[in-house]
Amino acid sequence: MLQIAETTQTQGAVPKPRNRAGTERAIFVAARDLLAEEGFQGFGINAVARRAGCDKQLIYRYYGGLDGLVEAIGTDLGSWVQDRIPQDTGGMFLLTYGDLMEKLSIYFMEALRDDPLVCKIVAWEVSQDTPQVRRLSEARMKALGKWLEHMRGSLTPPKGVDTVTTNALIFASIQHLVISASVSGQFAGVALKTKKDWEKVEAAVKRLVRAIYG
């Protein structure tokens, strides 16, 4: 945990150099980690300041308070897809829309499993209707949509397939499995604990995508 504190000059004291960039980053990382661990119930100015090792006034100075921190986290989530889901195809040449959706589905599943905060945001989307959750959710989905448009290029889906609804169902099923894995380690009798378990899920997702898109 970063312990970066800024101090102000007091009478008779030697002023210490400030490191604004480091302090801002410490506050941001502390806020993001705290939100992932505790949710909005444990997300407060004092808690973030303790986690960051700084005076809480610096949170107001640099972020304007909790709302500003949520905005910053939402902006960071806008780059979540680019950071977590590679834009290359791992040597796979995308010939069809089915190739694209197969690759994106697996990347999406792996990225969700690796990011506790995004996983929680997904869970909040269906359980909490608050401005903060909507802001974070919209940032994530906007980034995912941009990634898909970039990767799709000139690829077109088969005629007669409602891609918006179909892709929503694919992503929703992946999200639910990842959330269930974090809560109980299984869903509907399907184990979601080991590498082998997830390899089975990956194979099933690929078959579903191919059955729809060819």
Automatic annotation (TrEMBL):
The record places domain HTH tetR-type at: 21-81
Q: Answer whether the UniProt record assigns the keyword Transferase to this protein.
A: no
Per UniProt, the keywords (alphabetical) are: DNA-binding, Transcription, Transcription regulation
GO MF terms, alphabetically ordered: DNA-binding transcription factor activity; transcription cis-regulatory region binding
| SUPFAM superfamilies in alphabetical order | Homeodomain-like, Tetracyclin repressor-like, C-terminal domain
- Sorted alphabetically, which Gene3D superfamilies does this protein's record hold? Tetracycline Repressor, domain 2 (1.10.357.10)
Per the record, DNA-binding region residues lie at 44-63
Q: Entry's InterPro entries? A: Homeodomain-like_sf (IPR009057), HTH-type_TetR-like_transc_reg (IPR050109), HTH_TetR (IPR001647), Tet_transcr_reg_TetR-rel_C_sf (IPR036271)
Q: Which Pfam families match?
A: TetR_N
The name of this protein is TetR family transcriptional regulator
Source organism: Neorhizobium alkalisoli
